[in-house]
Amino acid sequence: MEKIIKPTSGYLALIFLFISLFAIGFSFYQIAANESYGYGILILISFIVFIVIVKGLIIVNPNHSRVLNLFGNYVGTIKANGLFFINPFYTAQKISLRSENLQGQTLKVNDKMGNPIEIGAVIVWKVGDTFKAAYDVQSYTDYVRVQSEAAVRHLAVSFAYDNLEDENAQLTLRDGGEEVNRILESELSERLAKAGIVVEEARISHLAYAPEIAGAMLQRQQASAIVAARAKIVEGAVGMVDMALKKLSQEGIVELDDEKKAAMVSNLMVVLCGEKAAQPIVNTGTLYN
Q1: What pLDDT is stored for residue 148 in this prediction?
Q2: pLDDT tens across 207-221, in order?
Q3: CA triple 212-218-222, angle to 5 deg
Q4: pTM, to two decimals
C-alpha cells in the first residue's frame, strides 16, 4: 500500500552543509598557518557532518517522486516538490509521475473470423501507485509494454474486422470506433492495475488487412459496394417506370396494351440502369411491323 510522506525541508540542512565546509576550510588554514594540529578533530567532525548532509539531501522535481526504503523495508513515497533532507541510510528510487505515450508496434494477428489483420494502438499512461510500480513488478515500463501488446492481441481475436463474413456482428473492429477504444482501455486498466499504472487513454492507431489478403478483401468490398449501388439503382428505376406508366394512363396521353407496356418498361430499364448513355434509335415503323 502506498504511503505518502513529507520529509524535513532541506534548506536548514543546506545551511549546515555550508557551515561544515567553512569549518573544514578554516581548520586547514589554522593548521597551515599556526601548525595547530588540534583542529584535526574539528575537520573530522565537519567532514562527517558534510557526508551525512550530502547523503541525505534530495531534490524532487515536479511530477516526480521518490520511493524510500530502509534496509529492505518500505518507508514511504515523497510526491511533494522541492529540496528535502531524509535519513542518509534511506535508499531513494526515482519514479516519474508524468503521462507517457506508448506507441505499440503493429501486430499481425487473426481476427475472430480467422482473417489475418494488422493492428496497432497508442496508449497514454502514468504511474498512479508508486509502491506497486516499485515492488510488485520487476520493471513497470516493460510490464506496460508487454501487457499492452497482449491486450491488443486479445481485442483483435475477440471481434471480426468487419461484418462482411459475420453479418450478425453487433460490433466490429473497423466500425466499432469509440466503443472498441473503450473496451481496450478497460482491459488495459485491469491488466496494468497490478503495477499501479493508470491508463488515461487507449486508441487503435492502425487497422488493416494483412498484405496477403488485402487485395482480395478490397475486391470483395468493391463488389459488395457495386451490388448495393445496383440494387439502389434498380429500386429507383422501377419506381420511375411505375410513375411514368401511371402518369401516361391518368392523363390519357397514349393507350398502351400489355405488349407495348412491356416494351416501354424494357426500354426505360435499359436507359435508367445502363452505365453509359443510351443511343436513340428512330423507328419509322410500328411495334408490330
Answers
A1: 92
A2: 887 776 556 666 666
A3: 160
A4: 0.68
